[in-house]
């Protein structure tokens, strides 16, 4: 985990460094002295009447900002955004093109979650697109984890889905990750992968991604 100026976990919106208003969250990228800010629409959780039962995590370094919204009590989807300046290794990878760089970033995230849950991540969808005139890639992964609801119950397979967007937004890397599951995800989740991919189940997530504004 990044170690920086601010590092909070399992907090409420009121504990975040930035400002909340009219359904949006606004903050600086890294330290306020950088004078670069961003604004993003707050995620729309299913069956969550209040933000009091939704976890919020934030990590801020002098140059970067990471924030995650979720899980909540009923909708356990997690929405993550990471904004960080590109470094020398990023520019080296970018010499081979954004697609090469973005695929490398996506593989890094897949490896990170594979190690965290000790189960492989399976790629089930890959697309290239434009978001706010920026080149972007989209990846969807699934991961099967044996879990149990209570300590005395038997373990059952639970499928986690991860949607990843990586934007080409010079001089920053802007990455979004959404994590949800067949058992604990939003009630509106389609019953099949095909349906999920067709209607981009993740409509709330897509809205979250497309609402980003960097100033």
Computed Rg? 17 Å
**What's the structural domain tally?**
1
Query: Low-confidence segments, ≥5 residues, pLDDT <50?
Result: 1-5, 184-190, 197-201
How would you characterize the largest beta sheet?
A: 8 strands, antiparallel
Question: What is the CATH domain class?
Answer: Alpha Beta
Estimate the global geometry from the Cα principal axes.
Answer: globular
User: Which structural class do the helices and strands define?
Assistant: alpha+beta
> From the 3D coordinates, which CATH architecture would you assign?
3-Layer(aba) Sandwich
Query: What's the count of strands?
Result: 12
Counting DSSP H or I runs of 4 or more residues, the number of helices is 4
Into which percent range does the helicity of residues fall?
10-25%
Could you list some keywords that capture this structure?
alpha+beta; Protein Transport Mog1p, Chain A; 19% helix; 40% strand; disordered N terminus
Lay out the secondary structure:
Elements: E1 6-11, E2 19-21, E3 24-28, E4 37-41, E5 56-60, E6 65-69, E7 78-85, H1 88-94, H2 98-117, E8 122-131, E9 134-147, E10 156-169, E11 172-181, H3 193-198, H4 203-210, E12 213-214
Antiparallel strand pairs: 1-5, 2-3, 3-4, 4-12, 5-6, 6-7, 7-11, 8-9, 9-10, 10-11
């Amino acid at each position: 985990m990044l170690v920086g100026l601010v590092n909070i976990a399992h907090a409420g919106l009121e504990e975040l460094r930035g400002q909340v208003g009219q359904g949006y969250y606004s903050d600086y990228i890294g330290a306020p002295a950088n004078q670069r800010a961003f604004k993003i629409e707050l995620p729309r959780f299913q069956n969550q009447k209040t933000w009091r039962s939704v976890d919020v995590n934030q990590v801020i370094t002098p140059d970067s900002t990471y924030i995650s919204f979720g899980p909540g009590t009923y909708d356990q989807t997690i929405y993550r955004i990471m904004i960080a300046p590109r470094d020398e290794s990023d520019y080296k990878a970018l010499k081979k093109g954004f697609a090469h760089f973005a695929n490398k970033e996506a593989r890094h995230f897949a490896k990170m979650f594979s190690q965290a849950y000790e189960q492989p991540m399976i790629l089930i969808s890959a697309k290239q697109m434009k978001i706010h005139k920026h080149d972007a890639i989209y990846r969807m992964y699934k991961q099967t984890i044996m879990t149990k609801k209570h300590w005395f119950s038997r373990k059952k397979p639970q499928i986690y889905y991860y949607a990843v967007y990586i934007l080409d937004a010079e001089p920053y890397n802007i990455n979004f990750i959404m994590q949800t599951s067949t058992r604990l995800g939003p009630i509106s989740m389609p019953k099949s992968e095909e349906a999920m991919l067709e209607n981009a189940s993740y409509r709330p997530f897509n809205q979250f991604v497309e609402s980003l504004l960097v100033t």
